[in-house]
Design brief:
Elements (H helix, E strand, L loop, with lengths): L23 E6 L5 H11 L7 E3 L8 E8 L6 H5 L3 E9 L1 E2 L11 E2 L7 H7 L5 E5 L8 E2 L2 E2 H6 L9 E14 L2 E8 L5 H11 L4 E11 L2 E2 L4 E2 H10 L4
Parallel strand pairs: 1-14, 3-12
Antiparallel strand pairs: 1-3, 2-3, 4-11, 4-12, 5-6, 7-10, 8-9, 10-11, 12-13
Helix pairs in contact: 1-6
Length: about 240
Amino acid sequence: MTETTEQIDTAKEFPEFNFAEGELLLINKPYKWTSFDVVGKIRNSLKPLKLKVGHAGTLDPLATGLLILCTGKLTKQIDTFQAQEKEYTGTMIVGASTPSFDMETVVDQEYPTSHLTDEQIYAATAAFTGDIQQYPPAHSAVKVNGERLYVKARRGEETELRLRFVTVSEFEITRIALPEVDFRIVCSKGTYIRSLISDFGTAIHSGAYLSKLTRTRNGEFLLENAFEVNDLVNYIRNNKQI
């Protein structure tokens, strides 16, 4: 089975697909795959049909979980699915920071944690719920002058980042075992969980970076109903779904 942060039941019944008319596919994105890797894998399996395939909301390579793909005529509705509320679960490491705000880059600074209590950590989430502002990570897929920020960051270039407004409906701390802190977040489209965790670390006067992230819900669609990429590809090829 593909490595994931959560084990998903792969013994699902596959429907009869009509990819040309349009299918909405729920995929459990594997760890270290880009969202475009998933799109490419599915598009390649449908190559004889020469169909459009697109995803409704990027997941970082180090994140796993629910990725919605649309095929054929349904690709026209991608923006609708992308705009829906998202839910994530994950783990942050408190007491350190990285330039990418996650494990893509190595720790560049360490901070004390001895001053922290569980009550302080729980209470700090209040400042990050509701309508908030955040900067996207320098290591992100946001484009500036036609080039993605992570490309500029890897060259060592500094770019002026623009604040964005997002909505965090829920920010729940589910486990504290310092330096690890687990969380669940419900948020709007465009929310960068990495930025949220980095800002959270600053708020508790101790850095923090993201070590695990899984998207568990996109609108009404749930991760528990998602297919593993290779299972779906094998089904398409072996059951003449093209």
